[in-house]
Design brief:
The complex is a heterodimer of chains A (about 280) and B (about 425). With about 280 residues, chain A is mostly helical. Chain A is about 80% helix and about 0% strand. In chain A, strands 1-2 form a two-stranded antiparallel ribbon. In chain A, strand 1 and strand 2 form a beta hairpin. Chain B is of the alpha/beta class. Chain B is built from 21 helices and twelve strands. In chain B, helix 9 packs across helix 11 and helix 9 crosses helix 20. Classes of the chains: A mainly alpha (about 280), B alpha/beta (about 425). At the A-B interface, helix 1 and helix 10 of A face helix 1, helix 3, helix 4 and helix 20 of B.
């Protein structure tokens, strides 16, 4: 019975796989192959370079700076965006006269075109804090404000959906048993929300590693390296410096980092579940 | 079974739609359509290109030019990608130099050496040189630019200073302006080429042109140039936040009288005509001050081809492309470029015959013993990109002049 369900499931997944896998696999293999060569984007053939691009990468100061910035971005997403999103979801959970309006206002940044967001924040910062905007120390924090502003609403909506699936009777029963707000949150809401928390954390980590657009439009990696991310550096090395092999090596490093991040979250949740059962 | 049939239908559908999309390119046989990418996205230079296209279409029956105006940096990316993929336009904008040479190296651009002799004969030799690789001409330069120091005559008067002639005087003028509460220099270095103008000028004054041509990237000239740049930054002569400001944002400071000087090409005047016509009367220019080391180093002007046009080697309509090219560089176009305050790429005699009395900028061009091309356009792409990045780091005081020079030398050896 189980086996047949599995086969049917695979068959149902097949059409999507036929369309999706080549789109995923071909560029992935192509990028990896290119990362072992040197190519200026014009030459008729690639020049074999072995692991040369990777060894250059390890010695490239800007690569490490960019990676560090991506880690900071992950940190801010997990420590600021997710908890704020959760807090807002809890506050706006019950339907009220204004909650619908507030929820929509918080979610709107997520559906606005990114370029619009970046340009509006850029304008805002150059007018409001011209001394900070362009200052190497402040540029990354300012850009992160804009990024967080965009994504908090997205996480809030995820949590609202998660909260909606929790049976209100559970919390009512706990209230009758004398549990306070914190105890209910800690022992009922949070554990039941765990699958959603894992999804939002995974999305935040992977999204932070491949992040590009707001940073590129707001700062374009300027002032030098103060906002450089792996993706902006990859773009610059590819399309400006015409080092497509090197840019591909950066791309492969990004895939590895995203895989590692997602793997860590997955492992962390496995360990927790294992301990409980 | 049903699933299989469904899949087969899906595949068939996929094959059908991909087949359909290939069928375009219809129309009557006489019509020839060519694609043209340029960067004249704004007034007053966009109408010049549009008018030249109209003249070409009128001169050549059935010619249809599909023009696309794209901003500088996106054009570079888009063109580079298209060149690699073999989907390049028939005619495209170029700045000559290392970028064009990279395309010429793989025979992707048409050799124009013998193509339009009358048009070429009246163009400025230095501008033509910027469009040559290995003795072959690969583009027609139409608009050249020289970088003067623009200044606000009212603010200079107010502070009681006059245009400086030496680097020492320049620093003194900046200091006086600063004492009077006037911001000396407007800079938007987010794009990194505006700051590079300072670096290139200082390097040129210290003998950088010879060093560059010999690929001596750790030459004393580059280190001294880095030191002068950092001296300007440390003296706080630029507007705050200059490294995050764009050129668009910085020129507004200059137009509003919030900074006294701006090192920028003739297009600054074109922008002023459109955005701040009231400011034009108080706008004047002086040549970048000299170091007093060698007369020809001091007289060299930094500049480049601001608009040149090249033809793809694989175009199906070379004759039509040449028609377009000659109209982009005809009398009417040259006059119109001059009328916007830009510098048509003409030699002196041709300039005087067509336009008349040389403007101060034109006099700078005709008097210069040598024009140093912007490094980011002179160098091959990888070094050009690194030059912009290291110069920007010099401005941000994140790199020492000698470390910046060392990075350039290493990248050169690695290529």
């Amino acid at each position: 019975m189980n086996k047949r369900r599995g086969v049917t499931g695979l068959l149902f997944a097949l059409p999507a796989a036929v369309v999706y896998l080549p789109l995923l696999a071909i560029p992935l293999v192509y990028t990896f192959a290119l990362s072992l060569h040197r190519w200026d984007g014009l030459a008729p053939s690639w020049r074999w370079y072995g692991l040369g691009n990777y060894s250059s990468l390890l010695n490239d100061r800007i690569f490490w700076i960019a990676l560090w910035h991506n880690l900071l971005l992950i940190g801010v997403s997990l420590v600021v965006q997710l908890p704020l999103g959760l807090a807002l979801a809890l506050l706006l959970r019950r339907a009220g006269r204004l909650t619908g309006l507030i929820r929509t206002s918080i979610f709107i940044p997520y559906i606005l075109p990114t370029v619009v967001i970046a340009l509006v924040w850029r304008l805002l910062f150059t007018r409001a804090v011209p001394t900070l905007y362009g200052d190497a120390q402040w540029m990354l924090p300012l850009v992160i404000v804009a990024i967080s502003w965009r994504f908090i609403g997205f996480h809030m909506v995820l949590y609202l959906a998660g909260l909606a699936t929790i049976d209100p009777q559970l919390e009512e029963a706990a209230t009758l048993d004398g549990a306070g707000h914190w105890a209910i949150f800690r022992h009922i809401t949070l554990p039941l929300l765990k699958p959603v928390l894992v999804v939002s954390a995974t999305l935040a980590v992977i999204g932070s590693i491949k992040y590009f657009d707001i940073v590129y439009v707001m700062a374009g990696g300027d002032p030098p390296q103060s906002t450089e991310l792996l993706a902006t550096y990859m773009f610059e090395q590819g399309f400006d410096a015409r080092r497509f092999g090197y840019a591909s090596a950066i791309a492969v490093a990004m895939v590895a980092a995203a895989g590692l991040g997602a793997g860590i979250i997955w492992l962390a949740t496995r360990v927790r579940v294992g301990r409980r059962s | 079974m049903t699933i299989l049939r469904f899949l087969l239908t899906l595949c068939a559908l996929g094959a059908l739609t991909s087949g359909c999309s290939r069928q375009k390119n219809q129309g009557d046989a006489a019509a020839v359509s060519i694609e043209f990418w340029h960067i004249q996205t704004y007034e007053p230079t966009k109408p010049i290109v549009d008018a030249a296209i109209a003249r070409a279409e009128e001169a050549h029956a059935g010619l249809q030019v599909r023009a696309e105006a794209i901003k500088n940096d996106p054009l570079k990316t888009k063109l580079a990608t298209a060149m690699g993929a073999g989907t390049q336009p028939d005619v495209f904008h170029t700045w000559g130099g290392g970028g064009l040479a990279a395309y010429a190296q793989y025979n992707l651009v048409m050799d124009l050496s013998a193509a339009v002799p009358e048009t070429v004969a009246r163009l400025h030799p230095a501008a033509l040189d910027f469009c040559r690789t290995g003795g072959k001409l690969h583009a027609l330069p139409v608009d050249v630019s020289l970088i003067p120091m623009w200044y606000n005559t009212k603010l200079f008067k107010q502070a009681g200073v006059t245009p400086p002639e030496s680097i020492d005087e320049f620093f003194a003028v900046c200091a006086t302006l600063q004492e009077k509460g006037i911001r000396p220099l407007a800079l938007g270095n987010a794009e990194s080429w505006p700051g590079a103008f300072y670096f290139i000028y200082f390097a040129t004054r210290f003998g950088g042109s010879e060093a560059l041509e010999a690929n001596r990237f750790t030459d004393r000239a580059f280190i001294s140039a880095g030191e002068q740049v950092q001296r300007l930054v440390e003296s706080d002569f630029f507007n705050p936040g200059f490294n995050g400001f764009s050129y668009d944002e910085a020129r507004r400071l200059f137009f509003k009288g919030e900074a006294a000087m701006m090192l920028m090409g003739p297009w600054l005047e074109a922008h002023a005509q459109e955005e701040a016509p009231d400011f034009l009367p108080s706008m004047a220019a002086f040549p970048f001050p000299g170091a007093g080391l060698q007369a020809d180093w001091d007289a060299t002007v930094v500049g480049g081809v601001n608009a040149g046009y090249a033809i793809s080697a694989n175009t199906a309509a070379p004759a039509e492309c040449l028609t377009l090219l000659s109209h982009l560089a005809d009398d009417q176009a040259m006059k119109e470029w001059a009328a916007t305050g830009r510098l048509p790429a003409l030699r002196r005699e041709a300039y005087e015959a067509l336009i008349g009395e040389p403007t101060p900028l034109a006099r700078m061009l005709f008097a210069a013993p040598r024009i140093q091309m912007y490094y980011d356009q002179f160098l091959p792409p990888r070094l050009a990109s690194l030059h912009k990045s290291t110069t920007q780091q010099l401005f941000a005081l994140q790199l020492t002049p000698s470390a910046a020079a060392k990075l350039m030398a290493e990248a050169y050896l690695d290529e």
